[in-house]
Amino acid sequence: DKVLMELIEPYELRVAKLREFLEDVKPSLRYDIVRLIDPYGPTITDPDLQCLVVSQETRRGGEAVNKQRLENGLPALALYEILLMQDPDHRENEEEKISSSSLRHRLLGTLLRPPRQDPALPSRPYVIGLTGGTGSGKTSIARLLGCLGAFLIDADKLGHAVYVPGGPAYKQVVATFGAEILCEDGTINRKVLGAKVFGNQERLKSLTDIVWPEIARMVKEQIREAEAQG
Q: Which of 33, 36, 173, 176 could cysteine-pair with 41, CB 3.0–4.6 Å?
């Protein structure tokens, strides 16, 4: 649920920076940095842990950890609560504490890196890929670019188009996943198809191997159309 999660640094880079910071604070201590794959991590299973550092806003999480430890037959951890540093320059819509979410907000409208100069790229058509999570503003930005004269290609719409009867992926999808994915009118029931593939990596890959190349081909066709229109 992080704000602007697309601008969070990769896990490996965050780990490297954290390790560098911890070793700078006290290099004589041993630090184990563990990837959290659930809300509790090793805190509810490691018998050697004695203390959990929490903040005022994460104290309830620490109490939940201790509840799980007691249910697992482990002693409760001492909860050591720290105060969070306040951000004296925070804006009205930002958190009062120093927060990476606020920093990511401030990155909006700035270049993360300068445009890449590649002589192998043609000057026209100039292709911009617009991506992001749900609610990140793709539609609004696309609309603004369209007002500036951009030729818009909606990959989501193309993704729907490949499934329609007579579409480039229709026959192969039906052959791969069976006639039970069809509605009475012969269209593919995307909910039924989704139930077959999501949560099953092998089936999902089978579907994307069929659909994605067709979407890419349609995108390239539309790029050529844009070029022809100047």
A: 36
